[in-house]
Amino acid sequence: MGSVSIELPWMEMAGELPSFFEMEEDAEDEARRSRRRERTTSWWTRREEEMKTLLEEELRNPPIGGEEEEEEEEDRDIVDEEEADLDTMRMYRRGWEQSFGGSYGSFQDKTSLGPMRYTDGAIPEYASCESAVQIFSVQVTELKDGLKWPLHAYGHVAIRDLLDHNRNLLFERKRDNCQILTRQDSYLLLTGPSRAAVIIDPVAFEVDLKVKGERESEDKVLSLKYFQHSTVTSYESHVPMIRRCCPSKRCMLEVKFAVLYQAVEATVVSTKVVRGSWMDHYRGQVVCRTASASEEDIVLLDSRDGSMHVNSDGAIELSRSVVSVELSGLLIFRVVASRVNDKMDVIAENSAILTPMVGGKSKSTCDLGFCEVEITVAWSLFSILEDLRRHNIL
Prior knowledge:
Blueprint: H1 10-15, H2 27-60, H3 68-75, H4 81-104, E1 130-143, E2 151-160, E3 168-173, E4 179-181, E5 197-198, E6 203-211, E7 220-229, E8 242-247, E9 251-276, E10 282-290, E11 298-302, E12 322-326, E13 331-339, E14 342-354, E15 361-367, E16 371-380, H5 384-390
Antiparallel strand pairs: 1-5, 1-9, 2-3, 2-4, 2-6, 6-7, 8-9, 9-12, 9-16, 10-11, 10-13, 13-14, 15-16
Helix pairs in contact: 2-4
Region (Disordered): 52-84
Protein name: DUF6598 domain-containing protein
Domain DUF6598: 132-377
């Protein structure tokens, strides 16, 4: 079968995105939003000050009695980056437990909030658009300390936000299900977030990755990092891309993300072959982009060097399904079919464009010639104030 050549208008569509500063908001709605931000920001500032005080106290007065081994570990001079990272993560965890443990449970708890909270039914008054964090990729860009490709990596990468301060996992693998990273393909196969992350105030990123050895005792820390991001940058048509480089003893890790203004949550609830069939010898890739970040793909599924699995009913199961997009923007999906073991040999590709909504569902179709793939998205707003009240924060 010959190739289907289709020109994808990424940049042209991005240029049509209206300026966010041209949007008109109801005066009463803007006043309500301002009051909410003041209250949540004030609460966060108090929490941040409490955490800082607790961490300073830990450094001045190490714990005594019943924790001899831990005390000895903390008092030892930090001799390398790995020890420094471990010490930082230890203090971060203690600060989190002191500040948030009473309201949000265990430090290891995963977020209890799911996506599509206001997709169906009447939208409550307190639901609104918010600034949201869109994570594009996490990549090991450099190896150090004698590590060599390929790596068998496991562990987790997560983000925490104001909604419940629990782990919203972006990547999680157990030791018996490592991802093999190579020099040619060193990106983690992300499976999250499980819901969109908002950035009314700082979001926290956690990285805890290990390299599998022949025996568990020979496993090594690949990256153990914690960092925050709090900046929401104004923009008109193209969102600034943020690349956070995380150096450690054995690697350099890059987290690529952006902060989208006045965003809604988009959850892909169905990706399905509705006409024709997917060939067994075709690998598949499903990605999406926002019009404001038209040069960066959000990879929803990549079968890599194998064929893309399609269920008997035509359903395609994505690796990740939740993204964020500006309400005034566009969400652009692209499906690519190429030959197994040769991703450069593209058989067909096409795009589907969806206009964001505040609720409900919408769908569009990618016509690849040999088959059509239908993509259905559920839209939802956020509810910052209601979530804080639920935990007796406000």
